Amino acid sequence: MAGNPDFDLFKLGDEHEELRAAIRSLSEKEIAPHAKAVDEESRFPQEALDALTASGFNAVHVPEEYGGQGADSVATCIVIEEVARVCGSSSLIPAVNKLGTMGLILNGSDELKKQVLPQLALGEAMASYALSEREAGSDAASMRTRAKADGDEWVLNGSKCWITNGGKSAWYTVMAVTEPDKRANGISAFMVHKDDPGFSVTGYEHKLGIKGSPTAELAFEDCRIPGDRVIGDPGSGFKTALETLDHTRPTIGAQAVGLAQGALDAAIDYTKDRKQFGKSISEFQGVQFMLADMAMKLEAARLMVYTSAARAERGEKNLGFISSAAKCFASDVAMEVTTDAVQLFGGAGYTTDFPVERMMRDAKITQIYEGTNQVQRMVMSRALLK
Ligand code: COS
User: Ligand 1: distance of its center to the CA of 177 in Å?
Assistant: First the structure.
């Protein structure tokens, strides 16, 4: 029935569609032309950062009261998705800026937000999230990095690894143990700045994909930060870290959807052009069925990502199941769709002359970071069985 608002439930509003058109146009013009070189040279996509910042797309999630765009969670996913459609590495700029500040936004003091968030909104700084350690990956609560109160300050010692955009970010949300005997409830979250004494970047990973986004190891050697840089109450840091992931796993789903869409678009164009046995290969039913399956799975993944983002935006509780499900499903779909795209290109797909092999390599990390898809299944099943 026309005009019944219920029928708009599964439709994005005009504002979201306009946003998509704007970020798609920017991505195609300013980001796509550099994506191949960024990957081949394993260099940071500075052109993407400049273009995103000039248009206010670098950290769209920052609330208006801190000088940001105040984009809702679905809008933020659309921005990440559209950038990922042309360059996975560049999509980590808006994604990791959200990851690196979500704990602060959820549980930090107004004063601390005022110190950090306007810098992101203005494009003066980026932020990263530092939870993992060499020996504490999936079992994040077994971290060893320590923080001790010393007068009005906190002193951090230890190291963090797998830090996306590490070395490029000025701010880091760092989880550290403040009361070792309390395990998860003895962990606190802090905002650490790259210029804080005792902070350093000690190395970078050499990776299969997302080669334009540095993945760094960080060291804290008697790293001193002011007392007011703790996020929320001491001891609440692990909950802040997991709550953050409830809000950001949908953004990894969005990145996965974007990568899959980029690969599907490329595969459609290629299979229409490519001729074998005297006709376009898109006329073969075997190819048509592959394209149909790719698009069908992608459609389901996108809907799940937007649903999870919308539920986070509405402030619903118990987001664990849906945010893990969206991230897990979308990233598995992205791996399948990008691999099928390489297959549809045949030998050409295996070369760097076409973007699909890069998209396949970039898709792989979406099944691993922000929690492996095995951890997502743990989170989902715990929610079902509790
Ligand atoms: N939001 C807030 N609090 C949460 C929560 C959530 N989504 N999920 C769990 N908690 C709380 C629990 O209630 C518990 O608190 P209480 O002891 O007061 O009840 C505390 O946090 C610890 O939870 P739990 O016992 O479930 O922790 P585990 O050590 O079993 O770890 C997993 C849970 C495995 C889910 C967690 O370690 C995880 O997500 N690991 C993957 C980490 C990850 O994603 N790494 C990638 C980093 S970003 S690249």
Answer: 15
Catalytically annotated residues: 370
Are 146 and 157 spatial neighbours (Cβ–Cβ below 8 Å)?
Answer: yes
Our answer on whether the CB atom of 238 is closer than 6 Å to any ligand 1 atom is yes
- The helix or strand, by DSSP H or E, that contains position 134, with its residue range, turns out to be none
| Ligand 1 pocket test, candidate residues 145, 239, 308, 366, most atoms within 8 A of CB | 239
pLDDT of res. 141: 97
243 lines ligand 1 (CB under 6 A): yes
Q: Mind listing the pLDDT tens digit for each residue in 144-164?
A: 999 999 999 999 999 999 999
Q: Give the three-class secondary structure for 279.
A: strand
CB 52 within 8 A of CB 82: no
Q: What are the structural domains, with CATH classification, of the chain?
A: 14-121 (1.10.540.10), 127-235 (2.40.110.10), 238-385 (1.20.140.10)
